[in-house]
Fold these 2 entries.
Entry 1:
Amino acid sequence: MRSLIIHNAKDLRIEDGPVPEPAAGQVLVQIERGGICGSDLHYFNHGGFGTVRLKEPMVLGHEVSGRIVKLGGGVSSLAVGDLVAVSPSRPCGHCRYCQEGKQNHCLNMRFYGSAMPFPHIQGAFREQLVADEAQCVKANGLSAGEAAVAEPLAVCLHGVRQAGEILGKKVLVTGSGPIGVLCVLAARRAGAGEIVVTDITDQTLAHASRAGADRTINTATGQEAMIGYGADKGYFDIHFECSGAPAALATGIAALRPKGVIVQLGMGGDMTVPVQAITAKELSLKGSFRFHEEFETAVRLMQGGLIDVKPLITHTLPIEQTVAAFDLASDRQKSMKVQIALTP
C-alpha cells in the first residue's frame, strides 16, 4: 500500500507500507480521490504554518473518498462496494466539549494529517485507509471527486451557521479560493440576497461568478470599487473572510453595516484587527473552525443536486504525479481544486 508522506518542506515521498486490517466497528476503504487543501500546501511548501511545524514524517491529506472493500465486526450501516466520503474529524466523544455538543473543539481530536499535536495525526492520502464506521457517509450517486469535496463544503456550511440568519442578507466574501467559492454556494443555498466576492486574481474570481456571485472585484486592480460600499456606515450584513489576509478583513469591516457579522474562516496567522471600527459599528466577529454534523449534510446536499461542486475540481492527477499535483495546486492562476487519484 502506498502513502504520501511529507518529511520536510518540498520533501514529499510516495512510500510503501502494510495493508491495514479493520477492527470491530471499522471499515477498510480503498481511497480513490484526495483533494489537496490549503493546509496540505502549507506543509508541502513551508513545512507548516504559524507555530505548527512538522516534527516527524506525516501522511498528508484529509479530503478523501473511496469504496469500502472490507468490513470489521459489527458494522451494519455500510456494505462492501459503497462509495463513501470519509470525515477526517474523529472527536473522542468523552471530553467536556464533546459532551456539550462541541465536537469540533474536542480536547483529544484526531484530525487526519495534522501536525498540531505531537506525535502528529497521520493523514488519509494512502491507497487503503481504516476508518470508523461513524466517519463514513454513503455517497452513492456522486463521483469520487465530488464525494471528496464534502470536507471543505462542511467547513463552509459550519461557517454559514456561525453567521446566523442569512435569508435576504447582503454578503461579502473575501478570498475566492475553494473555501470562498464554496461559501458562495452555501450562502446562496441559505438564501443570501446578494453576494459580492473579492480576490486578487481574475482566474479565481471567474469561479466565484460561475458559482453564482452577483459581482466580483479584483482588489489588486480595482480596490476603488470597494470604496462605495463604505458609504453611510456600510453596505453588507455578513462578511465571510476566507483569505486569511489582514487587508481583506479590514476591507470587510469598513464595508459592513452596523450590527453586521464577520465570520473568519481564513487561517493565515495572527492579524491586526481594527477594533475601534468593530466597537463603533457594534460588529460581531466570529471564528469558524472545522465542523461536525455538517459533514453528512454536505454529502446530502450534493446528492440532492442542491449544491454542485463539480466545476471546482479543475485537475485530477494520478498518484505517480503527486509532486506535480502539489505544484499545480500551489498556482492559483492555473487551478482551483486539485485532486489526486490515489487509486484508479
Entry 2:
Amino acid sequence: MMRGLIGAIGLCAVATHALAADPLEIGIGYLRHAGIKATLSLVEQPADNDGVAGALLAIEDNNTTGKFLNQHFTLTEVKLKENDDVAAAANSLADHDGFIIADLPADELLKVADTLRDRGTVLFDAGSIDDRLREQDCRANVIHVAPTRSMLADGLAQYLVWKQWKRWLLVVGSHDKDKLYADALRRAAARFGAKIVQERTFEDTGGARRTDSGVTLIQHQMPVFTQEAPAYDVLVAADESEVFASYLPYRTWDPRPVAGSAGLVPTSWDASHDQWGAIQIQNRFVKLNSRHMTAMDMQAWTAARMVGEATSRTNSSDPKTVFSFIKGKDFSVAAFKGQRLTLRDWNLQLRQPILLADGRMVVSVSPQEGFLHQYSELDTLGVDRPETKCKLQ
C-alpha cells in the first residue's frame, strides 16, 4: 500500500515538473515591404497590415493549442523600406526564427531563398503567384502557400467551360504581370476546351481617371474599345496592374459578362466566403481588425497554421523536422475550404480550391464537377506532376 502511494506521488511530481517546464518556443518571421499598392476601387484599398493580420490570427490559434502542448509561438515582422537589403533582413530574422513567411516579389524571394539555403530556415511564400517559382526557378527550401497564376486561371476556366461560355474575348494589359496572367489564361483555355476568338491589348498611357470628366471618358472609351469583336460569350481580362479591368463590367459594347481581373475573379479567399465554417474565422478576424479578411491575410494565416500543425504533430521546433513532416504524406491543414490541404511534393505548392467571387458573393468554387484526376481533383488546377519543370535543389 505504502509502495503504491509513493509511486503515485512520484508520478504527480513528474507531471508537475513537465507542466512547469519552459514552453517550447517557435519563432516565425514575417518579411514584406512597407507601404501599400493603391487599387482602382476606393473600397478595396489594402490595409497597412494586409497579410500580417492573418498571420497574427494564426499565431493566436497556434497558441490556443500550444497551451496544452507546452508550446509558444511568436511572430516577428520586418517591413522593408526602399533600398533595404532583403538578404540582410532575412538573415537577421533567421538568427532567431526558423520559419519565415515572405510577401515578396519573385526575384527577391529567390534571393532570400538562396541566401538562407545553408541555414536550414524554411520559407513560406505567401505573396508571389509567379509560376516560375514553382517550376524552372523552384527552390527546395520554399513552400508556396499562395496559388499560382495557372491555378487561378484554371479555376476560372473550369467554371466558364462548365457554364458553356467557351468563346473568350481576351483583353490584356501592357505590363509584364498582365502578360504573365494572359499566358496562364491561354494555357487554361487550351487545357479545358475554350477558344480565344480574339485578343486585344489595352495600353497604359498613364493619366488619372479620378477627375470630374473621368466617368464620362470611361463611359465612352470602353464601349468603343470592345466594339466589333467576333462573337464571344465572356470577356476575360488580364490586368494585374489595375489599369483598366475594373472599368469593363457594364461598359462593354456587347452585353457580356466580364471575368479574370474584374467581374468574376478567381482568388484564394474572399470576404464573402461563408461555407465550411469560414464564417467563424471571418467573424473573429473582423472583431480583431475592424476590417474584412483578404486573400493575402488568408495565405499568411495558412502559412503560420502549417507551422503550428506540424509542430504540434512532431512536438518539435526544429525547422528540419517540421519541414520534413510538412512534405510528408501524413501532413494536411484545414483552411475552411471544404477539404484538407496538402503539399505537392514535386514543387512544394500547396494544393487548394480556388474561389470565384464577384465582389459581393462567392459564385462557385473550383475544381468544378466533372474535372477528374487520378490522384486529386485539386491537381487539375495548375501545373501537374507530368508537366513540371521543377528540380528541387
